[in-house]
Design goal:
heterodimer, A: alpha+beta, Multidrug efflux transporter AcrB transmembrane fold, Gyrase A, domain 2, 3 domains, 5-stranded antiparallel β-sheet, 51% helix, B: alpha+beta, Alpha-Beta Plaits, 4-stranded antiparallel β-sheet, two-stranded parallel ribbon, 12% strand, elongated
Chain lengths: 549, 314
């Protein structure tokens, strides 16, 4: 009667001790943790941004831009194919030209169209355009599919779209590249390790803990920083261009820093891009003394720029960053050394930022901020303190209540189980690296209230069994046996809802789900196993005639 | 040992719960209809999590001139601008939607710059920007979470108990959620992600309570095969009554502790939970169980043969 298997006693002792060891570092100051021997765990629980302070930024990679760039390249190349010209390095005789017109992209940039003059040429035209397609690389290697979907539509028009596989693969690559670029940029500034993670298909989350300036972080992460050197188109006057007469192959861009020339007409084709930079440093313009960015091209970039500048002495070129003209100087002499300087209206800080961005490279596609949450570190500290106060108040109230309701012994056992429960939750969260948030603290406090429920169920059942005329030992035994079924059923439903919260919740709410689900599991352990061991020990010690409840 | 508290809850109560189930049902139905009407007329006060938009909390070392802030921010071509004081006179809360098509995140930086211009050294302890796409997804996910939670819980009850009991619990859950939404609609409390967490916790709590009563009913139905269902319900509810009250009280005490935690979202969470604990306890006794009178579960000999685990109890 009331025999408790030895393994249960051992399990209770071992789990409680382990819990204590893993939870302990959370109560120790940093200095003590650092000086502890290395075999002891020293990890502390992760605090969410709402408790620690910091910034959470969710970006979406605008993959449409990448799709559009690919289709633009195809639209450019298809004219050579249709004309039957040889590709660079291609052998054999030229093919017969196919007459076409109206080549271009739809306004949303997701379909390229070309009109074929002679309907008889359409099958051959499709074949030639399809030869421009490139294979799609999936996660595990080539997929055997190509990236272009070419088909004829009524009106002698051929439409070219990207296949879904191609889009998926391009998005995936754009997100990976973006993450790499963001990491380089952040490393460059030496900021306190922000976490950069991919979320879903096309999203990137950047979390920076502690005191941080979200605006600076956004500029650093969110700027595409695509630098290009393009010739200024001087075939039409600025007035004509502003009136809308823009020659094909040129584009009118803003020049924000120059009120005398707010817009500049430039050639679309870039002479050299930021990809060809090997160095970029903040410096000063030697003539004006204003802040500037000095740079160095790599071999290919230097050659391309030397050739272009030699051919265009006396003409102007534009230095363009993210479709905005920084400056548009005149080429006075061929620039052969491969280094140069970007001046514009920089401050020391903005020159520094641009140099950092250029060194880290451009993002493959623009990033759009979808969600931003910033919490000041002081507010976070206040929340932790408020949470701790709330926990202590709740704990004291419940301790008083349980002792009033069940007496010192049974009430005391329930409170001991509750204390161990809290320690185990903290230990489990520390071990698995779960994040504690403000709603998580609420979940923890709620668990205090709910965890005693299992003890209450067991005690009430014992009380009933005794009233029904059973001996004390039988009542205790039956109380446990029957109540456990109820406790299990009741907790499974709680666990189900907690898991759903975990799956669907975001950020702080997920923290709530963490504490709730861990709390359900640990309270099963403390309420059932631990309470049983303690009550049995008490019974063996005192051999009572009646239950004190 | 005589503890005063024990006397508050007599050891053997014999309340005739079922006797009042008809008036209780009428009250429940009326309240549910009122809640639905309120939800559709007054509506719910969705926060930026589900509506999208921006919230900026500002703290200055001097009292903030709200009228001036209202004027300056109001002139920035934003939509739905709201400026309100917040706890202390040196704190303010500014809500707005960015202009159609504008980058929300850039807009908030412009607003911060404007506020810095009129209040040098102002600090922004909390800034939240939720884009329209994200808020839509959060809404869909929240609704999905509630739906799936209800479904899983009901499936679980069905497999562990009877189909009729699963039905009883789904009615009780619907009752709890509708009343809580009605409560939120009448009080116009901020409906945020944390509210979804609170609703799911209420579901968990209410089910926990229902399961305890159902569990006892299952046991009593096996024990007293001839007893009428109404008496079984009364007996089971009475037997579990002291547990029901004590657990409601401990949860209530825990929530009482939480009221000291500041911040609008946590306050709303605590208030909803307090409401939910009350409603969840009520619904286990007066919604889930009486539904079984309308659609009684199978019992008696044909059931006893089917159940192998029957009479586990001596």
């Amino acid at each position: 009667m009331l025999h408790v298997a030895r393994w249960r006693v051992l399990a209770v002792i071992i789990v409680s001790l382990l819990g204590l060891i893993y939870a302990l570092p959370n109560a120790l100051p940093q200095s003590v943790r650092d000086s502890m021997p290395s075999f002891l765990p020293s990890k502390t629980v992760n605090l969410g941004l709402d408790l620690q302070g910091g910034s959470y930024l969710m970006f979406e990679v605008e993959s449409q831009v990448v799709y559009k760039a690919r289709l633009e390249a195809v639209a450019d190349d298809l004219s050579r194919e249709l004309r039957g010209q040889r590709r660079p390095g291609e052998l054999g005789s030229a093919k017969t030209p196919i007459l076409f017109a109206g080549r271009g992209l739809t306004p949303d940039g997701q379909v390229a169209r070309v009109t074929i003059q002679n309907p008889a040429d359409i099958p051959e035209a499709i074949k030639r355009i399809e030869s421009l397609a490139s294979p799609v690389i999936g996660l595990t290697g080539p997929t055997g599919r190509t990236d272009l979907d070419v088909k004829a539509v009524p009106g002698n028009v051929i439409e070219i779209r990207l296949t879904e596989e191609a889009k998926t693969s391009m998005t995936r690559r754009a997100v990976s590249q973006s993450i790499e670029v963001i990491r380089r940029r952040i490393d460059e500034t030496g900021t306190k390790e922000p976490a950069i993670t991919r979320q879903g298909v096309d999203r990137i989350v950047v979390q920076a803990p502690g005191e941080s300036d979200p605006e600076k972080l956004k500029r650093l992460v969110g700027q595409t920083a695509r630098l290009t050197f393009q010739m200024v188109d001087e075939t039409v006057s600025p007035a004509e261009a502003a009136a809308g007469r823009i020659p094909p192959g040129s584009v009118l861009l803003e020049q924000p820093g120059e009120p005398r020339e707010p817009q500049v007409l430039v050639r679309r084709r870039a002479l050299v891009t930021g990809d060809n930079l090997t160095k970029a440093d903040p410096g000063f313009d030697q003539q004006t003394g204003e802040p500037a960015v000095t740079f160095q091209f790599d071999g290919a970039g230097a050659r391309a720029f030397a050739r272009a500048s030699t051919e265009n002495v006396g003409k102007r070129f534009a230095i363009v960053l993210d479709d905005k003209v920084l400056s548009a100087p005149t080429i006075r002499e061929p620039i052969l050394g491969g280094n140069g300087q970007i001046s514009g209206s920089f401050t020391i800080e903005s020159a520094n930022e641009l140099a950092t961005l250029l060194r880290a490279g451009a993002l493959p596609a623009p990033l759009k901020v979808m969600e931003q949450r910033t919490v000041g570190p002081e507010l976070g500290r206040d929340s932790i303190n408020a949470g701790a106060t709330a926990g202590i108040i709740a704990m004291l109230l419940i301790v008083a209540f349980m002792i009033l309701a069940y007496g010192l012994i049974f009430g005391g056992i329930a409170i001991l189980a509750l204390a161990v429960n809290l320690i185990l939750i903290l230990a489990a969260m520390t071990m698995v690296g779960a994040t504690l948030t403000l709603p998580g603290i609420a979940g923890l406090i709620l668990t205090i209230g709910a965890a005693v429920d299992a003890n209450v169920l067991i005690y009430e059942r014992m009380r009933e069994e005794e009233l029904a005329g059973r001996s004390t030992a039988l009542a205790i035994d039956a109380g446990f046996k029957r109540a456990i079924v109820t406790v299990m059923d009741a907790n499974v439903t709680a666990l189900l809802t907690a898991l759903i919260l975990f799956y669907f919740g975001a950020g702080p709410v997920r923290g709530f789900a963490w504490t709730l689900s861990i709390g359900v599991i640990t309270s099963l352990f403390t309420a059932i196993l631990m309470t049983q061991v303690l009550v049995a020990a008490w019974y063996r010690q005192t051999k009572p005639k009646r239950l004190p409840i | 040992m005589k503890w005063p508290f024990i006397k508050l809850i007599p050891k053997n109560t014999k309340f005739g719960f079922v006797r009042f189930s008809m008036p209780a049902a009428i009250v429940s139905v009326v309240l549910c209809i009122a809640s639905l009407v309120s939800c559709f007329t007054l509506g719910l006060n969705f926060g930026i999590d589900f509506k999208g938009g921006t919230v900026v909390e500002a703290v200055w070392d001097k009292p903030i001139n709200l009228a001036q802030v209202r004027e300056r921010v109001g002139n920035m071509n934003l939509r739905d601008v709201g400026v309100q004081d917040f706890q202390e006179p040196n704190q303010a809360m500014i809500r707005f939607l960015p202009p159609e098509g504008a980058d929300a995140s850039a807009t908030v930086d412009a607003v911060k710059a404007e506020l810095r211009a009129i209040m040098p050294g102002v600090k922004f302890p909390r800034v939240e920007v939720v884009g329209p796409k994200v808020s839509e997804e959060l809404g869909v996910n929240g609704a999905l979470a509630l739906g799936i939670a209800i479904l899983l819980v009901v499936l679980y009850i069905w497999t562990r108990f009877e189909l009729q009991m699963g039905f009883g619990s789904i009615v009780a859950l619907a009752h709890d959620i509708i009343l809580t939404l009605g409560f939120m609609s009448i009080t116009q409390l901020d409906f945020s992600l944390t509210t979804i967490a609170a609703l799911l916790t209420i579901i968990g709590y209410s089910m926990n309570d229902t399961v305890v009563v159902f569990d006892r009913m299952r046991e009593n139905m096996r024990k007293y095969k001839k007893m009428p269902l109404g008496d079984i319900i009364d007996l089971s509810t009475n037997e579990t009554l002291s547990r029901t009250i004590i657990t409601a009280l401990t949860t209530f005490l825990a929530l009482l502790g939480l009221t000291v935690v500041g911040g609008e979202t946590m306050q709303v969470f605590t208030v909803i939970m307090l409401f939910g604990v009350f409603i969840g306890t009520y619904s286990s006794i007066y919604v889930a169980a009486p539904v079984l009178i309308l659609w009684p579960p199978k019992r008696g000999a044909e059931k006893a043969a089917a159940r192998t685990e029957a009479d586990a109890r001596p």
